[in-house]
Amino acid sequence: MRMLLIHSDYLEYEVKDKALKKPEEISEEQKKGRLDEVLAVFVSVEKVDEQNPEEVVEKAVAEIKDVASQVKAQNIFVYPFAHLSSELASPDAALKILKAVEEKLKEEGFNVKRAPFGYYKAFKLSCKGHPLAELSRTIVPGEVKKEEEVPEALKKEEELVSYWYILTPEGELVEVDKFDFTGHENLRKFANYEISKSRIAEKEPPHVKIMLEQELVDYEPGSDPGNLRYYPKGRLIKSLLEQYVTEKVIEYGAMEVETPIMYDFEHPALEKYLNRFPARQYIVKSGDKKYFLRFAACFGQFLIKKDATISYKHLPLRMYELTRYSFRREKRGELSGLRRLRAFTMPDMHTVAKDLKQAMEEFKKQYKLSMEVLKGVGLTPDDYEVAIRFTEDFWNENKDFVVELVKIIGKPVLIEMWKQRFFYFILKFEFNFVDNLDKAAALSTVQIDVENAERFGITYYDEDGKEKHPLILHCSPSGAIERVMYAILEKQAKLRNQGKKPMYPLWLSPIQVRVIPVNEDYLDYALYIAGKLEGARIRVDVDDTSDRLTKKIRKAEKEWIPYIIVVGENEKRQGIITVRKREDGKQYEMQLEDLIKEIKQRTEGFPYKPRPLPLLLSQRPKFRG
After folding, report:
1. Residue 151 confidence class, pLDDT cut points 50, 70, 90
2. Residue 150: pLDDT above 70?
3. At which positions is Zn(2+) bound (predicted)?
4. Domains and CATH numbers, the chain
């Protein structure tokens, strides 16, 4: 069970619609409710709670009592809130547990109200804002709470002391608490997030609603949490992003390879690396052997490089793999839509460099490559914040280089500095997207690794024919593909909140043009127009449903269709098209050839894939609801 407890001046709700086919039966009076001077307890009942519901109820009531005594609250509002977890209990089990919590609290002498279960509800609350006003709690039945295998790197990371600064393009290094964040509000949010190290997702980020409404991606109840299902439109977007990033990296000069997804836990180099990499692993047993599912492409590529004969003439040597998938057993509370997953697709490039000078040259090039890749998916430096992390020694010896990186991005960045090196890298940058809940997620990253060449036995021959250990750069120019989708959708949610129309980048839009006949008499002409567009490699569909014209247009708007063509008598007679452009909301009469030319110009240089759904809307299934 997960609980979010908010000490409030009041909480009130109003039932709007059914969220379940068979919600809790309620009276007319229960459709609205309010309590003043209240401890609001938002609750998600989880699958694991079904194993010992009585214990969960006892523990939950004890936690609520403890918080209520601290904030001196006598009124308690139990509010079902599914969005705190992705591993929900069955509706029947959840309702029984919620009712039991309600009754137990009443027995303890509290004035308790419970919001109805299984409904969409509008609610208002006024948080008091003192230090104990917002708290979260996780309840786990004792017998299913197992000791987790945690890598040494994660344990040590929690003990690591970081020193935080802001570095300006002018080269001024300012302690975070002394920096004036005026005009850099997003940087302030990012710094707070990083320093707090709180990764728990207490609310559902807006992109989740979008990905479900748009039928892109969905949770998969038949798998481990953090492993998602992709519907046709979502698969198209993901596939195009995979192709785009891969093409950019190969164009940059990398050689593409493919490596296994599982590795021997007892391999000496891998075992040591596991204890240096801060990630939780999936463990797989085969007979008496224990394997782990990869959490990056590092070791597969390292093992290839170990067996290769490499000369200084080959350096820098770049190797790349698009890992579908990499696996990390993130904590359940950290899983959040597309932002943080347990199975993800990571474009992963590793570059062998002969020395620090060459490594730093590559680092700067890959920094610029990452900016270019993000620009292609519609993300500019205004949309993300930069973190640069290094040891104090590296800063003292390479200040000018670090400042140059800041000048390239053109705005202040967050600096994390360590007195001594703990990780396998001496320098790292990340481009981080800050979402609508003020949570940050790393996109692009590059690291200079000074350990793993020696650990894995990777060498090259220098000018004198001597074997030497190189340095290795780890680079993902976009970050996980799923996280790029998250950033795109979260950016559009921000724009929608500002009253602007959300849009996909045109080359990523699942349907780029929708043709709408004013009635069935013009369906043939609509199909003719669609055929011309499809022949020009433009993703187009036709709304042949019996809906009214206004409803068809609204439907296209809800799907963020960039171009809507309406055809009727006038268009057929004159051989023209009437186009509504989502970008500016205006309507144009134009020649079809001109529209084709416009779309081709705007999508030039980006990959193309055909329409992911049937041409006619009447032939499409509905994947949700």
Report:
1. low
2. no
3. 298, 350, 474
4. 2-138 (3.50.80.10), 155-488 (3.30.930.10), 506-619 (3.40.50.800)
- The band of 15, judged by pLDDT with boundaries at 50, 70 and 90, is very high
| Residue 157 scores a pLDDT above 70 | no
- Residue 541, both tokens: 């569909």
Whether 526 contacts 577, CB under 8 Å: no
- The pLDDT value given to residue 51: 86
Tell me the average pLDDT across 510-536: 96
pLDDT in tens, 455-465: 999 999 999 99
Among the listed residues 330, 308, 329, the one whose alpha carbon sits nearest the alpha carbon of residue 319 = 308
What mean pLDDT do residues 511-522 have?
A: 96
CA distances from 131 to 6, 71, 135, 575 (A): 11, 10, 9, 68
What pLDDT, on the 0 to 100 scale, is given for residue 156?
56
Residue 442 has a pLDDT of 95
Distance of alpha carbon 502 from alpha carbon 383, whole angstroms: 15
Q: Which residues pair with 592 in a beta bridge?
A: none
Residue 118 has which token pair?
Answer: 């299984």
357: three-class secondary structure by DSSP: helix
Average pLDDT, the chain: 91
Residue in 105, 110, 78 with CA at minimum distance from that of residue 5 = 78
CA distance 246 to 252: 10
CA angle 364, 370, 373 (to 5 degrees): 145
Q: What does each C-alpha distance from 346 to 11, 59, 249 come to in angstroms?
A: 43, 40, 13
Tell whether the model's pLDDT for residue 596 goes beyond 80: yes
Binding residues: 298, 350, 474
* Cβ–Cβ under 8 Å, residues 477 and 244: no
Q: Which residues contact 41 (CB under 8 A, 6 or more apart)?
A: 3, 4, 5, 64, 76, 77, 78, 79
pLDDT of 512: 98
pLDDT value, residue 57: 94
Q: Which residues are annotated as a binding site for Zn(2+)?
A: 298, 350, 474
CA distance 507 to 237: 9
Enumerate the β-bridge partners of residue 62.
none
Q: How many CA atoms lie within 13 A of 49 on its CB side?
A: 31
Whether residue 477 is preceded by a cis peptide bond, meaning omega within 30 degrees of 0, is no
Average pLDDT over residues 176-201: 88
| Burial classification of residue 199, based on how many CB atoms lie within 10 Å of its CB (0-12 exposed, 13-18 middle, 19 or more buried) | middle
Residue 98, CA distances (Å) to 29, 122, 550, 575 in order: 19, 19, 44, 64
Q: Are 525 and 257 in contact (CB under 8 A)?
A: no
**What b/e sequence results for 387-402 when a residue is b if at least 16 CB atoms lie within 10 Å of its CB, and e otherwise?**
bbbbbeebbeebeeeb
